[in-house]
């Protein structure tokens, strides 16, 4: 699956991140290719021809920056490489993957990925497994959020179904918030009224039906 997210290239459902100098994350490409252990970026870098390519590109680069850089730790760890090296790494993985990566990078550079969603049926078993894993992860995250929201939803239902009136303090306890915060919110929206013959704190929640 190719989905443009935040205008970054996406291959097989994996966002190919870049660093501050525009180098591409080889670890993300490895993951997008299926993540075979024998195709790790570190093994590719041990190749003598690859080192010669890096040296040659460094000599001819007028960018004044490293053509490849490894980042350990932090929020975005990984090996980041110049676009030409990233395409070369993709070719080392497989010719078909190189063509896919090269075309995606072309679209990325030309701006075709902006405001565009591209959907492709997985072309291999690893891609299909990656897509299935991503969908399962998203489903698990949504289910976790629903579980976290259940107490709040239950509290709101108790308040909505309560007969007559409920004081702000009791409502705050149900919602597990500070009474003053709830009072300020409800006062601003004119959702509370003052009971006749009661002190200033004698406030109650209006019934929904009384709001018209």
From TrEMBL:
Domain KilA-N: 5-108
Pfam families per the UniProt record, alphabetical: ANT (PF03374), KilA-N (PF04383)
A molecular function (GO) term: DNA binding
InterPro entries noted in UniProt: Ant_C (IPR005039), KilA/APSES_HTH (IPR018004), KilA_N (IPR017880)
Protein name (Swiss-Prot/TrEMBL): KilA-N domain-containing protein
